[in-house]
Amino acid sequence: MFQSGNEIKREFLRTFFEDEGTVLEHEIRLYSINQRGLLEIQKMLEDFEINSRMKKGYGKKRNVFALVIGKKDERQRFARRIGFLSSKKNMKMMSSIPAKDECMVI
Q: 3-class SS at 103?
């Protein structure tokens, strides 16, 4: 998967973020106990020039990691280059980006 072309990576990321991702007011997040897996996803996002950061310490045992796309420019890039499968998540993501900065979702 990680050696695949950008179209395959895009569809993988779109599907993975649809299933496992969440849209917050100023962030898009993925949660997992699999830090290595999140690091691989972070590398794939970098192939689309989308920067993210890793946070740790979530969950009851504090063993859950979060991959966070927080900066407005990065969320815009995610919207243009990856997006979600569902219109519901795409609309929620777009509402977190100021109207004057809106961009077209794939």
A: coil
> Is there a contact between 15 and 85 (Cβ–Cβ < 8 Å)?
yes
Contact 93, 84 (CB under 8 A): yes
Q: How far apart are the first and last CA of the chain?
A: 21
Tens of pLDDT, residues 18-71? 999 999 999 999 999 999 999 999 999 999 999 999 999 887 778 899 999 999
Pull the structure tokens for residue 105: 């979702």
Domain boundaries, the chain: 6-97
Which pLDDT does position 2 carry in this prediction?
Answer: 58
Residue 63 tokens, joined: 């063993």
Q: 6-97: which CATH topology?
A: Endonuclease I-creI (3.10.28)
> What's the pTM?
0.84
Partners of residue 67 on adjacent β-strands: 30, 54
